[in-house]
Design goal:
The complex is a heterodimer of chains A (282) and B (277). Chain A starts with a helix and ends in an 8-residue tail after the last helix. Chain A contains 11 helices and no strands. By secondary structure, chain A is mainly α. By secondary structure, chain B is α/β, with parallel strands linked by helices. In chain B, 33% of the residues lie in helices and 24% in strands. Chain B has helices spanning 71-78, 106-112, 127-137, 143-156, 160-163, 176-188, 206-219, 232-238, 256-261, 266-272; strands spanning 31-42, 45-56, 60-64, 88-96, 99-100, 113-116, 194-198, 224-228, 241-246, 249-255. In chain B, α3 (127-137) packs across α4, α3 (127-137) runs parallel beside α6 (176-188) and α6 (176-188) packs parallel to α7 (206-219). Chain B is globular and about 55 Å long. The N and C termini of chain B lie far apart (40 Å). The chains are: A mainly alpha (282), B alpha/beta (277). Chain A binds chain B through residues 164-177, 180, 184-185, 188-189, 278-282, and chain B through 79, 81, 84, 107-108, 110-111, 114-115, 117-125, 133-134, 136-138, 170, 172-176, 179, 183, 186-187, 190, 203.
Chain lengths: 282, 277
């Protein structure tokens, strides 16, 4: 009896140790990356980095202002296409799709989510770049929106489904039509969750590189319009990192740091948004 | 059909809204809702089997019975809330006054037959917007009239004094009992002729329950009330008529005092004396 009791304690301790260690490794990776980026790229971050155009190789200094603006434009285009399509699709999936249709759409969305991003890049290339005969912000934003839409559909669906049935019935019981109940009670109740999901989706696509390589391409100068190629942080990191110049390497690390910091900030804002504002009083 | 002769226009004096101070009892026991031979199915499962009864106007009708006996399903037939369940199917007829409730426009039916649920389900909106919701979806936009209707409904639900200073606070800030009275006020705002309550006090403490019962007692002057309850004492305290359901059948339906003192059926007696259920 004593023996078995002790054995259980040992097993318990062992499992605690293993799970704890794995958790530690997971958490440590993020801090390791962050620390490494700060160490390698921290020195290159100054006001110039955010306000200047890149300098030619050999010339010290310069910045990535055009890439930061380019990334913002790309994400904006992706959001302008992806948020409405993903949201409305999610509403359909959660509220109107019958069991068969919902299953099919959900499955397709999940498959789309698993398509390698470079494949989506080729798709955007043939759909937008070739007809327009030009690399452009539009093409890059389109490619990112294809990655964003399935994420947006699924989070919207998830948060709408999480709205409790009695809340819907409460609206229906007052003579609201199904659509009215969804628009005035279900969607507002799910809104914070949906907004959070959208922000996480944006953060996810902001770091995508592969689909931009042959859609928005790159640009050493300010982009003159959304129908023109533009620099972006991920592509800039790629270009600078494979270059032979130590100064560019430092700037690539700095760009990585800026990109990661932006994504982390968006993530944190999203999480804070999701914090319960007030608990149910029952 | 008999109902065809009984046109509403021919009896203008029997408006469901009796003047305040009226005892609330119509001596003739005119039925507000007539249900005949309802068979109800969820897919292949039969939840109600040949249920017929008449619900008297301005009376409180309590439905009792063990869990799963069909009493909540029956309640959901009366405002067709069962339609949210895909596989649900109903046979038989339900008449609200002289109108076929199963054929009429469902939003119209639900405006006339309000419902209060087991767990308080206020919307994540302000107290004011909760009460105004039904009016707004029915097209009322005038701010002054909304304000007036919200105050009147909160007074009818005996909640006005407690919330008048904080109408624009979140409804979630209220206690459970207050939330349930808010849900009653919300249902009353559209001036329903019938109020259905599905175990409205099962999540509340005895004091909050007492308040709701007192409130229902006053409300029956202006409303016909149907309440599902697991609480036999509650049914005995407030009901005029009581129906006992068992396994999808309406075993017995009579004046509450008959059901609780001298039930005709053995199953009823066994249930109310606590021998099963």
């Amino acid at each position: 009896m004593m023996y078995r009791f002790r054995w259980r304690k040992i097993v318990n301790l062992l499992m605690f140790g293993i799970t704890g260690l794995c958790t530690l490794v997971t958490v440590a990776v993020l801090f390791l990356i962050l620390g490494y980026l700060v160490w390698k790229g921290g020195t290159s971050i100054n006001l110039d980095f955010f306000t200047q155009l890149p300098k030619p190789p050999g010339e010290a200094g310069g910045g990535m202002a055009n890439a930061i603006l380019g990334s913002a434009q790309l994400v904006l285009v992706a959001a302008l296409i992806g948020v409405p399509v993903g949201f409305v699709g999610g509403v359909y999936l959660a509220e109107f799709g019958g069991p068969t249709w919902s299953f099919v759409i959900r499955y397709v969305a999940d498959l789309l989510n698993g398509v390698p991003s470079i494949v989506l890049g080729i798709f955007a290339y043939s759909m937008v770049v070739l007809p327009m005969r030009n690399f452009s912000v539009l093409a890059g934003g389109f490619a990112l929106s294809i990655i964003f839409i399935p994420l947006a559909v699924r989070t919207t669906e998830q948060f709408l489904r999480a709205v409790e049935q009695p809340l819907r019935e409460g609206a229906l019981a007052l003579g609201a039509s199904k659509w009215k109940a969804i628009a005035t009670v279900v969607i507002p109740a799910a809104m914070r969750g949906v907004a959070t999901g959208m922000m996480l989706g944006i953060a996810r696509v902001a770091g995508e590189t592969a689909p931009l390589l042959f859609t928005s391409f790159n640009n050493r100068y300010w982009s003159s319009g959304i129908d023109e190629p533009a620099a972006s942080l991920p592509v800039m990191i790629f270009t600078y990192a494979i270059s032979p110049y130590p100064d560019w390497h430092r700037q690539a690390w700095a760009a990585g740091l800026v990109l990661l910091a932006l994504i982390l900030v968006v993530n944190v804002i999203a999480r804070v948004l999701l914090l319960p504002k007030h608990a149910h009083g029952h | 059909m008999l109902m065809a002769i009984d046109m509403p226009a021919l009896r203008p004096d029997v408006s469901p809204r009796a003047p305040a101070g009226d005892s609330g009892h119509h001596p003739d026991g005119r039925p507000k809702i007539r249900v005949s031979q309802i068979h109800f199915y969820y897919g292949s499962f039969q939840a109600l089997d040949d249920v017929s009864l008449a619900i008297g106007a301005n009376r409180i009708t309590a439905l009792i019975g063990p869990s799963g006996c069909g009493k909540s399903t029956f309640l959901r037939v009366l405002n067709r809330m069962y339609e949210t369940v895909r596989s649900a199917r109903v046979e038989g007829s339900v008449f609200l006054d002289d109108q076929d409730a199963l054929a009429m426009d469902v939003t119209e039916l639900r405006r006339r037959v309000g419902m209060v649920f087991q767990k308080p389900n206020p919307f994540p909106k302000s107290i004011f917007d909760n009460v105004a919701y039904g009016l707004k979806v029915n097209g009322l936009r005038n701010r002054a009239r909304l304000r007036e209707a919200v105050e009147r409904s909160l007074r009818r639900a005996a909640l006005w004094e407690e919330v008048k200073g904080k109408l624009h606070d979140s409804a979630y800030a209220l206690s459970g009992g207050q939330q349930q009275r808010l849900c009653i006020a919300r249902a009353l705002a559209v001036d329903p002729e019938v109020l259905l309550l599905d175990e409205p006090s099962s999540a509340l403490d005895p004091i909050a329950t007492g308040k709701i019962e007192e409130l229902l007692f006053h409300l029956k002057q202006s409303c016909t009330i149907v309440i599902v309850t697991h609480n036999m004492q509650q049914a005995a305290r407030i009901a005029d008529d009581t129906g006992f359901f068992l396994m999808g059948r309406l075993i017995e339906f009579d004046k509450a005092r008959v059901i609780f003192k001298t039930p005709a059926r053995k199953e009823t007696e066994d249930y109310i004396t606590g021998r099963f259920g």
